[in-house]
Q: What sequence folds into this?
């Protein structure tokens, strides 16, 4: 068995609107291996969450996958209908979303929610499922499980709630977890606890994780590889070290430079002029060219490709050293 | 003392309590006691003219409550706030650039509002000219004044908020998480703008943020808050080079550092306790690795020492003596 868990090829997500078709995700290819954490970064609207939603089969209509394919451990999942997708989602792909308060049902005890999910995805009896729920709660680091299992979501703190959500995602031992901004709503000290937990689970169980976040710090601490998105396309994919220390794409370089440093004193932060184009207004050629200081004629004409390797950069300048 | 001479704001023993008791009938029947939340529990600091004081801390530590107390949106429950300046020349910038601008007003009218309120006899032509000037100062164009807020991106809206705050020619700005809703590349634009304006106009900032790297970039002095109290206050560079309070040390150790990512750090254990029933003594002692018996019973006080850095911690004091 190959150890590639998620294989996305040339994925394209479109939203038909009255003003024309908007392409939220454009020609994205990526792979995640067993036990690997792939970080997806980009600014709001870059398409990183949309990619996660497409993989989960949760695109809101009229959004649709217009081209490309998604394979999960060799099985094609992007063309499944809702009924066929349901057992895949939950059993084979777990999801963790940003706001733990809205991902849990406020009217049910957390134990019952865990038991329901476990029973849905496995053949365990209610009693067995309850034992399994307790094990999961222990595994994600919830203290005094015997008492807490019968509490309601509002009786937990934000960090503890996010642990419950992670326990829910783990119920059926999925091959892949899509975590969309899992720590954004949490304080830094709790954020560190949750990322440490995600990393440990990924290592121990060999789960592949797609970590979607806008926080470069979280990525630097957690991810093995990083995919940077801009205006619906991947602009650079590399190991976390490459992206953080030696970014190649001018956008990644600008992004890294605009984060205030904890060590150095700088009078002015580096900044990228302008802002990301709206989806209905993406320029020809490289989408970044109007904000790029090194853009040449070719950048305004042809879209650079990122290639098919595990790392790569979609920039004429970085690829060929010239963009005339 | 010399350092107090040029202070624009002096805050002493400031307290703000909120009554979070159950309704009186429940209290009567279920014999529940009255409960108070001490959002701000004895805080003192002062801000020098032309400088930036940053308040940092996790959610619920009372930093936004201080912003509301300083601007007079809440009356204090105890202590004093002395502002040595013109009350009309204090303005505020809020976190959410989507909620803080009236969606039905054109941008020009939004920016002109403080002028119309504070100096109602300014002639209309002069107001218009000032709005155009303000738009240019924050990096927008005068024609943007005719548009509505929804036509702008988050970063541009925050520029509009800044232009509005500048309209009344303020000397003191309270900025409550001004860039938390923005993407990093846009955040850099707004932070650079705020620094430039401070230098050009001699502004004083009370800057509230939970992001330590932003705070390090912006602040001259940093006050670290935990459960309604300031646990440590130091000049920015000193705080990062030599954090004195165990909470500050843990916080600095917990935040991801892009230059030196620690892939397998041990995160700070536990959570922030509820401010309704904070721990006795030093409120950080249940999470503190250095806690001694005294910390559980006695509340440490901050003591001014020669370097103007102050820390409320028994362990930190005994460290140095």
A:
């Amino acid at each position: 068995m190959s150890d590639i868990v998620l294989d996305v090829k040339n994925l394209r997500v479109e939203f038909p609107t009255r003003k024309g078709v908007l392409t939220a995700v454009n020609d994205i290819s990526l792979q995640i291996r067993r036990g690997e954490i792939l970080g997806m970064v980009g600014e709001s609207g870059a398409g990183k969450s949309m990619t996660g939603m497409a993989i989960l089969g949760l695109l809101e209509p009229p959004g649709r996958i217009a081209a490309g394919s998604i394979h999960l451990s060799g099985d094609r999942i992007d063309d499944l209908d809702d009924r066929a997708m349901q057992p895949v989602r939950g059993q084979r792909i777990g999801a963790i979303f940003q706001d733990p308060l809205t991902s849990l049902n406020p009217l049910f005890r957390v134990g019952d929610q865990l038991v329901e999910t476990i029973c849905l995805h496995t053949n365990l009896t209610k009693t067995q499922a309850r034992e399994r729920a307790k094990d999961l709660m222990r595994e994600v680091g919830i203290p005094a499980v015997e008492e807490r299992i019968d509490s309601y979501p509002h009786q937990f703190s934000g960090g503890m709630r996010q642990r419950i959500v992670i326990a829910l995602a783990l119920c059926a031992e999925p091959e892949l977890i899509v975590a969309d901004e899992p720590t954004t709503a949490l304080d830094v000290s709790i954020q560190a606890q949750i990322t440490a937990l995600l990393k440990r689970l990924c290592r121990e169980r060999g789960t592949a994780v797609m970590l979607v976040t806008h926080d470069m710090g979280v990525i630097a601490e957690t991810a093995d590889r990083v995919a940077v998105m801009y205006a619906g396309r991947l602009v650079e994919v590399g190991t976390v070290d490459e992206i953080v220390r030696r970014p190649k794409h001018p956008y990644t370089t600008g992004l890294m430079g605009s984060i205030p440093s904890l060590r150095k004193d700088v009078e002015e932060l580096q900044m990228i002029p302008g802002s990301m184009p709206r989806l209905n207004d993406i320029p020809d050629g490289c989408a970044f060219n109007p904000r790029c200081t090194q853009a040449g004629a070719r950048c305004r004409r042809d879209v650079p490709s990122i290639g098919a390797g595990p790392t790569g950069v979609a920039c004429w300048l970085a690829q060929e050293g010239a963009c005339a | 003392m010399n350092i107090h001479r040029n202070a624009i704001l002096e805050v002493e023993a400031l307290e703000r309590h909120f009554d979070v008791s159950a309704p009186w009938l429940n209290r009567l029947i279920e014999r529940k006691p009255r409960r108070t939340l001490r959002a701000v529990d004895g805080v003192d600091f002062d801000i020098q003219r032309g400088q930036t004081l940053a308040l940092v801390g996790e959610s619920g530590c009372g930093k936004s409550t201080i912003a509301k107390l300083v601007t007079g949106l809440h009356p204090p429950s105890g202590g004093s706030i002395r502002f040595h300046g013109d009350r009309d020349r204090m303005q505020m910038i809020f976190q959410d650039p989507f909620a803080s601008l009236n969606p039905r007003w054109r941008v020009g009218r939004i920016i002109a509002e403080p002028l119309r309120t504070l100096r109602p006899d300014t002639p209309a032509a002069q107001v218009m000219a000032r709005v155009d000037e303000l738009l240019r100062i924050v990096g927008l164009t005068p024609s943007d004044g005719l548009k509505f807020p929804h036509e702008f991106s988050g970063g541009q809206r925050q520029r509009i908020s800044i232009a509005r705050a500048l309209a009344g020619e303020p000397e003191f700005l309270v900025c409550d998480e001004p860039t938390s809703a923005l993407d990093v590349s846009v955040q850099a634009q707004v932070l650079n703008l705020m620094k430039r304006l401070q230098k050009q106009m001699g502004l004083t900032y009370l800057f509230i943020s939970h992001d330590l790297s932003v705070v390090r970039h912006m602040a001259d002095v940093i006050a670290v808050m935990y459960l309604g109290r300031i646990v440590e206050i130091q000049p920015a560079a000193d705080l990062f080079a030599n954090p004195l309070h165990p909470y500050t040390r843990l916080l600095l150790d917990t935040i991801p550092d892009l230059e030196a990512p620690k892939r397998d750090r041990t995160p700070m254990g536990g959570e922030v306790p509820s401010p309704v029933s904070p721990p006795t003594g030093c409120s950080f002692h249940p999470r503190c690795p250095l806690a001694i018996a005294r910390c559980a019973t006695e509340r440490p006080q901050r003591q001014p020492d020669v370097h103007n850095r102050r820390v409320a911690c028994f362990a930190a004091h005994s460290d140095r003596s």
Summary: Chain B has eleven helices and ten strands.
